[in-house]
Amino acid sequence: MDFLYSYLVLAEIYVLLGLSTNLLVGIVGIFSVSQAAVFGVGAYIVAAFVMGDTLGFLPALAIAAACCVALNILATLPSLRVSGDYFVVTSFGIQLLATAVYTNWTAGTGGANGLPGIPPAKIFGHEIVETSEFLVVATIASLLGCLCFWLVLRSPYGRLLKAIREDEIAVAAAGKNVLHAKVSAAALAGAFAGSAGGLYATFLSFIDPTPFDLDASILLLTMVVVGGARTLAGSIIGPFLLLALPQILTLVDIPTTIAASMRQLIYGVLMITFMLFRPQGLAGEKL
Amino acid sequence: MLLLQLLVNGLVTGCALGMVAISFSLVFATTKIFHVAHAGVYTMAGYLTWSLITHGVPDALAMILSVAVCAIVGALIQNQLYDRLERRRATPLVVLIASLGLLAVMQNIIAAVYTPNILQFPSPWSSRMVSVGSIRLNYTQMLTVVIGLLAYVATVQFTTRSILGKRIRAVASNPFLAEITQLAPRSVYVYVIAIASALVALPGVLVPLDLGLQPYGGITPLLTATVAMIAGGVGSISGAFVVAVGIAVLQNLSLLVMPGEWSIGVTFFIFVIFMLFRPTGLFVAR
User: Where are the alpha helices (DSSP H) in A155-227?
Assistant: First the structure.
């Protein structure tokens, strides 16, 4: 049962990440391969605070989310001024830089060996140790995320974002502040990714650079591509399906040395196939 | 004379990086596709050459063969992937995601076949050292400089003098007009990606000949080359090459003050400076 619970918890954490990536890639329409790096910032910040016993879980989560908001704003601001294509460089750059920091800054992140022994989350004096209890926390967090995403999508602000995707110049000509709208969407994406990171670190009680590297960012992008861009359903279906994939792969007899490559290979094939034949994903709108 | 040695090392990596930059610049300026899978072609060239050499093909022939294969692979990528997407009126974002998917496929096929560990070339000549004064270089590094400069001159000559080169520049500057005037942009795109893939195969072989092969080693050079292309001015071959050499020299000099793991930070810092102060690049393309 614990196995199923931990799959559900991870899937719910990745739903938050899916929402974050969907906001950037699907709704604002900027290509991003750095959401895993932002996710990592959230995870390491929460881990540092909780391990040092300087702050409780919830305040640490809030600080992590705030830092990720700031990071995403800083990342998008200079590139959006110029051209969408250049955001690709920024995005790759942030991801590679973040991986370099996570692996080489041994004092802060434990380097490639990672940070073991992150204490369990304590919420209102209650320590969450059991997976089933954490499932409740993760469910509440992901439901809050989904509610937030849904509310944004149906608000006037959400319609503005959709209009920007359709025709940016027309929106600017109508007197709307395009840059402001894009940057605030990126900020919201940062908040989602940061909170997901905090949940991830305390749930697994161990973090290393692997879940925050470029391959992880590609996985997040695949989740949005498979699930579908710009819809709530798409951001939920993608993570649940793709996190089940490694479990299915263990049933097929593949040597463990190439298992990771095979998984990434499948993500790549999925990305190409969906872009060629179904760019709207399983339950999304046209990308 | 550590400073001088680092300077020379920077020139060597700069020549390799410059070839990546001009090849990427050719593709990006002409097709407007952010061809991330170019990093996959770069990696593939090295592994292909390694396989041919270990199967007894002479080194030079193996290199020429893999350059040819890369050109064919590049043409296939345009023909089978980008052209199909183009016909479906895919947005640049969709093309980019497909390209990233292709990169993931190429890298992971290589990793699954050759294992993710570093492979060294079985060519003893490549690491033979030569000392000039206090500077030490090996044969591969010298070959990189020679081939890099030749490739640069050849590309500039090709784009300015030859008929196909002029056609490429025409399509790059105005695809609609090129379509009307029977320049057939879609077949030009196939040629451009094929030529660029052949060009990127050169550093793809030369760099691992010196440092060893790694399946995931293509992204960092491609990213650095892209920064060089943007900082040099999109569409300017000379700009891309010169800035690539400049970045490589700066990266090597930065080793004096910080460890090599952070050199991606130097590249990125240069990019941010250019984004803030001169987003059109140093050399504006004509």
Answer: 156-166, 168-173, 178-204, 214-227
